Every structure is written in C-alpha cells, then in structure tokens.
Amino acid sequence: MSVLAGRPTRRRRHLGQRISRRQYLLISVSTFAGFVVLWSLATLTGLVSPLFLPSPVAVGERFVTQLQNGELPTDASASVYRIAAGFLLATVMAVPIGILIGTSARVEAALEPLIDFVRYMPVVAFVPLTILWAGIDDGQKFLIIWMGTFFQQVLLIADAVRQTPRGLIDLGETLGLNNRQILTRIVLRSSAPRIWDALRITLGWAWTWLVVAELVAASSGLGYRITLGQRYFQTDTIITYVLILGVLGLVTDQIMRAWGRRMFRYERSSR
C-alpha cells in the first residue's frame, strides 16, 4: 500500500479541455512549419515535378516579384473590396430575415422552404446569368458573393435564434415582458454569439465565391490572376495567389474571432 501511495497521481485530461494560448500558438505554428517542410521535401527530392508543384522558394520569389511590380497590392485590394461589399450586403439582408424566421412560425412556413430550395441551386450555374443581369463590372461579383452567402446565412441565423433556451423566454414572460422586450432583451442577447459565429463561417464561404466570381469576366483580383497563371501554366503564380487567399481568409477569420470574444464576454463568463 505504501508503494501505491507513493506513486504520483496523473492529471486526467477531460474531453474538450482547453489548452493555454501559448500551447495553442505553439501547436499551430508547428503544424504550418511541418507542412512547409513536407512541401520542400516533395519538391527537392524530385518526388513531384516543379512544373506541377513549385518549391516554397520559387513561390516566395514569385510573391516578391508580384509585390514589387504592384500587381499583388492591386489585386488584393480589389478582392477585399468585393468581399466586403458582397458580404455586407448579404449580412444586412440575412440577419433580420433569419431572426424573423427563427421567431415566427408563419414567417418560417412562408420563407424557409423557398430559401432551402434556392440554396441547393449551384451558384456556379448562375454565373452566365449574373453577367446578363449585372454586366461584367463589380456588381456581378457582388451578386455572386451575395448568392453564395445570403441563403446560407438566413438558415444559420434562424437556427441560432431557435436555440435560445425556452426557460429564458418563460422567465421573461413571468416577469411581464412583452414580445418585443423578450426579443431584444433575451432572444437577441442569447443568440448573438451564435449569429456572429454563423457570419464568421459564411465569410469563409464568401472567399470561395469571390474566386468563382473573378474567374470569369474580370480584369483584376486574386481569382483573375489565378486564371492568368492557369492560361500560361505558371504554377508558381497559382500557388502564390492561392496561399494569399488562404492568408487573407485566416486573417479575417481571426479578426472576427477576436471581435466576438470582446463583444460577447458575458457568454464566455456564463460557461
């Protein structure tokens, strides 16, 4: 018994247990570093032809070239502008509609089946029509991004609103709050973090639809430059701009995460 008593007890890690911010950062950086190492080995050992997968050095050189000649800043600013406009337009329309669907059975019956029907239609198939409807200017890009995010946003926001605990609503009714007060003080406050997460997720989808919009009838943007790289078989250009899209998407996602943590501190403290 003395031997067993002398053994140190191990702390058991529970499923879903959080790690420190330092550990999180270390693991994330290690993952990216490992990816670059594997990429380098695949190209340096000749496992993959540079024609199909350029080395990290070649991609870095192309990045510097595109940065110095001014094409990269121009393309990035054009794409960010289109993302911001299309996504904001979708969000401004989707948030109130999603809240209405989530709080009203009649509105849900009227709109949700229609939105469900439309969201299964492939946005890519609408590209020729959007050119006819909106021309080849930025309006067409806004429309593609809107179509790719609006319908998904509405349904995700409606689900976020429906997840409001029924007990909180009953408590509000017991305290004598009217429907408007219950909506503003209980439902929206409870569902706001989930709505924000829905917007963050659909922002990632918006970056995908941006590339679709810029692959056709564009004269600038990250997707346009990828098309040129494909036309002239410049795989280093393609990889460079794909990585830039990934970086921009990651940055915007982390910004929204940080804003969410700041705005919804009450939600974290209640856990």
UniProtKB/TrEMBL annotation:
Residues annotated as transmembrane: 21-42, 83-105, 117-136, 142-161, 198-218, 238-259
CDD domains per record: TM_PBP2 (cd06261)
Keyword terms of this UniProt record: Cell membrane, Membrane, Transmembrane, Transmembrane helix, Transport
Localization per record: Cell membrane
Residue span, ABC transmembrane type-1 domain: 76-256
GO cellular component, one term: plasma membrane
Main localization of the protein described in the UniProt heading: membrane
Topology in membrane: Multi-pass membrane protein
GO biological process: transmembrane transport
Pfam family for this entry, one: BPD_transp_1
Stored Gene3D superfamilies: MetI-like
Protein family (similarity comment): Belongs to the binding-protein-dependent transport system permease family.
Protein name: ABC transporter permease
Origin species: Cryobacterium luteum
Lineage: Bacteria, Bacillati, Actinomycetota, Actinomycetes, Micrococcales
